Amino acid sequence: MKKTILLSLLIAANGLTLSVRAGDVTEVWDKSCAKCHGKDGKGETKIGKKAEVKDFTDAKVQAAFTDDQAFKAVKEGLKDGEKIRMKPAEGVTDEQIKDLIKKVREFKK
Questions:
Q1: What's the predicted TM-score (pTM) here?
Q2: I need a labelling partner for 27 at 20 to 30 A (CA). Which of 36, 68, 97, 105 fits?
Q3: Residue 29: phi, psi to the nearest 5?
Q4: CATH number for the domain including 83?
């Protein structure tokens, strides 16, 4: 009986952690990424169109970069020569960046 209760508590706690993380990444996306990439990842925002961001729902766009490249882009930003195309993400942990990349991969159709 005690083992069953303990196992149930562990499963519930794990589910709660996953829910918090899922909410956390959505909050980070909405705050830091959506203004250019859009809530849906299509990049059809005013800023996104001006910056010519890629449509993350496009499988070809997704295939054009690795998770490591995406991590580096979020962590260090992107430059085109001297022009800054994307600033480095501020105030996010490496774990949150990994979660953001998972979110981006989920946009693919």
A1: 0.75
A2: 68
A3: -60, -50
A4: 1.10.760
